[in-house]
Amino acid sequence: MRATMIYGAGDVRVEDVSHPTLIHATDAIVRIVRACVCGSDLHGYNARTAADPAKAMGHEFIGIVEEIGSDVHKIKVGDFVIAPFAYADNTCEFCREGLQTSCIHGGFWGNGDVGGGQAEAVRSPFADGTLVVVPGPVDPELYPSFLALTDVYGTGYHAALKAQVSAATTVTVIGDGAVGLMAVLSAKRLGAERIILMGRHQVRTDLGITFGATDVVAERGEEGIARVLELTNGAGTHTVLEAVGYRDAYDMAVGVVRAGGVISRVGVPQYDDAPVGRGSLFGRNITLTGGPAPVRSYIEHLLPDVLSGVVNPGLVFDQTVSLENVADGYRAMADRTALKVIVQP
Question: For 8-50, how does the pLDDT look when each residue is reduced to its tens digit (9 = 90+)?
Fold first, then answer.
């Protein structure tokens, strides 16, 4: 079968690999119907070296179950399923607490002997715990929104939930990528009435307004901080949802958060050191939270509104490529000519 591999910075290839087979009794084989390229995929795309071993790519996909192991009882052959970006048994102590990204037995697609999702098929470990069945019949028009549930919608929701966004909180979202836009949507769904979106790309920020942003701040750095403070009478916002992952985004979050407020980070940090001391967080009673979103715990909660059409998170996808042309999708996202790209096997 065909699958996506990355060899070095900018070196994405589609190659022939062995078709996945059942290894454990709890496995399932999923034929992938749609996958996509994630903003976090670009970290490796931009920085991976040729000395690094080749890696299978893709952690967001939906598909149809083709085969199941003897210990799979909830998932059936023929089920249409959504796969969260981390697989998990959904029974360990962390999973029971809704933290499937810390599953004792789980992991992430494209690592070890588990393939990536930008492929024709994949073996799903712990199929009963990992995969979420979409009740049929399945409308192909909803494929983009189902894809959003594999990662970006759940990640944006996680950011807002960890920040305790409500009708009583003002919100700043830093980043106009897919996760940032989903954070706007999620903050609106949780009741926020004032949502400031910090982003520079008008097509994206216009979509953010559609999702519920009330203000857009295009400035960055100190200018951006000053603009948000101006909009909030010098106080800042109760919550800041940081969906970028770079140090300058964190510094802006510290600059615009209100005393007693919360910074919730879901952009994968590309830095190890950042201020958390008296002058930054401690002295103003700022809470720092966030992390990899346990989207498995959110999919079943968010899915009904997708099925009913109340929300359309699939609007973040603006380009589709074939699996054979997946490298074009990476380039488009890296060049900012696409917001988020669907991959069609």
Answer: 899 999 999 999 999 999 999 999 999 999 999 998 888 888 7
160-211 per-position pLDDT tens digit: 999 999 999 999 999 999 999 999 999 999 999 999 999 999 999 999 999 9
The CA distance from 104 to 165, in Å, is 29
Inter-axis angle of helices 296-308 and 143-150, to 10 degrees?
160
> Structure tokens of 113?
């002997």
User: 119 has which bridge partners?
Assistant: 3
In what order do the strands lie in the sheet containing 55-56? 11-16, 2-8, 55-56
d(CA 247, CA 164): 23
Token representation of residue 137: 């019949």
pLDDT digits (tens, 9 = 90+) for 128-165: 999 999 998 999 999 999 999 999 999 999 999 999 99
Which of left, alpha, beta for 210 (phi over 0: left; psi -120 to 50: alpha)? alpha
Alpha-carbon span 240 to 213, nearest angstrom = 13
Q: How do strand 28-36 and strand 11-16 relate by DSSP bridges? A: unpaired
Within 114-246, residue ranges assigned H as helices are: 127-130, 143-150, 152-162, 178-189, 202-211, 221-231
Residue extent(s) of CATH 3.90.180.10 domains in the chain: 2-151+294-344
Neighbours of 321 (CB within 10 A): 20
- Spatial distance between the Cα atoms of 43 and 329, rounded to a whole number of angstroms: 14
Q: What is the pTM of this model?
A: 0.96
Q: 188, 149, 142, 183: which is closest to 300 by C-alpha?
A: 149
Which one of 3.30.56.10, 3.30.210.10, 3.90.180.10, 2.30.30.30 gives the CATH number of domain 2-151+294-344?
3.90.180.10
User: For residues 150 and 82, is the Cβ–Cβ distance under 8 A?
Assistant: yes
Rg (CA), the chain: 20
Task: Give the whole-angstrom CA distance, residue 330 versus residue 166.
Answer: 36
- CATH top class, domain 156-290: alpha beta
Do the beta carbons of residue 84 and residue 295 sit within 8 Å? Answer: yes
Exposed, middle or buried by CB within 10 Å (0-12, 13-18, 19+), for 250? buried
